[in-house]
Amino acid sequence: MAFVREILDQHCLNQFLKLALKSFNEGNYQQTIESLEMIRQHDQSVGHKCSDVVTFYLIEARVAMAKLYWKQGNAIAAIEEYQGAIKLAPKYADLHLSLGRIYAGRHEYLPAENSFKKALEINPNYIEAILSQAYLAAEQGRHEKAVELFIGLSAKTNFYKQELFDKALAEANKGNLARAVKDFNLAFKTSPDRAETLCALGQDALRDNSCQEAVKYFLQAKKLKPGYADIYNLLGVCYTHTGEWSKASRLLKQAVKLAPHFTRAWLNLCIVSEKLDRKSQAQAACKKAAKLEPKNILVAETLERLSEKTPPHKPGRSEK
Fold it and tell me: Averaged over 50-78, what is the pLDDT?
């Protein structure tokens, strides 16, 4: 009877998942969240690990709801949705950035600053997070800090208007920090963040399984932001879908080089290395991910599986 009950449970869960994906594609994100949460809570109650598909769409649905709430002016609800998404993916820098921007919009400076710092802990080369810190410092009247951030940012990106930047730098050198901050603001704001838009388009294409289209968008974004680790990770994921494992490996290595605390990229590198039969590299990448996020169940299970696959070392004659 227990076996029959388990089959029935699995059938019900599959139906809920189908309902959730249908709701997601129709833009009914609240229904998506309710269906996926039911699956997640059931898995927790029976001691099963929630599937990656459920977790992925639950995060995406919560982010979509957060954006809708923010657009409607309901900041409290938007914050709650982002916090819910962060519980599921605590090492996803974009979530912390988006949450920080909402806090900044509400003039809640401390939580905003903490959110931007968290995003930069995960991805030290996250241009938007540094820029958001600079804008926040400027809004608070911390002109010296804002100038420091803007100048530091110029070494990481060319995505600003040079004429205005030079003018701001001249004002800063004269000690006119308030004037410099205004010009720095203009220098960076006059160039819209096209790379971020391209990344969003690429992620939409990837969700639709249009990998070639996604690659096109991510490559364009990479030209604009060659130091942005998320782009290399996303490109790596695209190439795993097309079976181009060596390309994926090179891109994922670049992602973790740019952002050493990027758990998701380390795990992706582990999976790709294993596919390429590079067992020691797979184990090393997985150990790095486990060190960064010890409570990540998927990382722990992957590391355990890799350890089981590794044959015990047999001593040679000279080691007897």
Answer: 88
CA–CA gap between residue 102 and residue 100 (Å, rounded):
5
What does the pLDDT look like over 257-308, one tens digit per residue?
A: 888 888 889 999 999 999 999 999 999 999 998 888 887 888 888 888 888 7
Whether 57 and 20 have beta carbons less than 8 Å apart is answered as yes
CB 148 within 8 A of CB 172: no
Per-residue model confidence as pLDDT tens digits over 210-223: 888 999 999 988 88
Q: Are 282 and 270 in contact (CB under 8 A)?
A: yes
Q: Which residues contact 271 (CB under 8 A, 6 or more apart)?
A: 240, 282, 302
Cα distance between residue 113 and residue 2, in whole Å: 51
C-alpha 145/C-alpha 117 separation (Å) is 14
Three-state SS for 173-233 is HCCCHHHHHHHHHHHHHCCCCHHHHHHHHHHHHHHCCCHHHHHHHHHHHHHHCCCCHHHHH
Mean pLDDT within 49-55: 76
Cα–Cα nearest to 302, from 280, 277, 270: 270
What are the angstrom distances between the C-alpha of 130 and each of 8, 98, 164, 231, 280? 50, 13, 19, 17, 35
